[in-house]
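Lecture notes, unit on protein representations.

Consider one protein chain, 270 amino acids long.
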Amino acid sequence: MKTDSIFYELFANLPETFFALLNLPENLAQEYQFCSQELKQLAKRIDGIFLPETNTKPIYFVEVQFQPDENFYHRLFTEIFVYLGQYKPSQDFHAVAIWANKNLNYDLPIYYQCFQSLGKLNIIYLDELNLTSTDYIGVEIVKLIVASEEKAKTIVENLFDLAQTNIESNTKQKDIIELVEKILVYKFTNYSLEELDKMFTLTDFKKTKFYRDTFSQGKAEGEIEGKIEGKIEAIPNLLRLGLPPEQIAEVLNLNLDLVNQFIRGNPEEN
């Protein structure tokens, strides 16, 4: 199961989940942006970073591990220190290691133990978390990732109910439903899609008005976004022809602010 990418997708869609796992107020997510960042010196990207909007909050680096890896802590801190040296942020940092279970963990090397003593390293074992019944959809998704087959069915039913009642955005509802389906495919690799449909009553759920409305809305929004992106791609050519932003907006039937925003973000096109 590709748990690391699943978790990063979960944090991107529901960043409150990360802070809930740390027993911190979920509304902290409003003060952070979850992203990945290029590390040029390592020729790779660090995928799990929560960047604060102010200098008073720490940067959170999160790494998810569901397989044995004796180099895990070396890799985590190497990536953190390369990031700090490359980007030189003014904020402090906090590292979070999320393990599937305690048996996978390796002893923390002595030269990193000071970070744990200072409260700058959190080690989370998902099998030891007290993930009791909740109405918070992000925690329910974490429960699904680590649940047995027997418990998964009840959790899936609850997740679909929560998606209908607690999530207002059609786009976010669609993303959550697709994430749940992806988890089931990755988690139960011995079953076909048809068998999963029967096990988790996905076929019945997909017949509901909520599911049809959500995905038809998402499809429509995707088509609109695609058309806008196509028009934006034409802006550089029109700029090279010498057209002013006002005329470009009129020709492409785009909002003038959107055209000016593109030009500001791409000064080399001027």
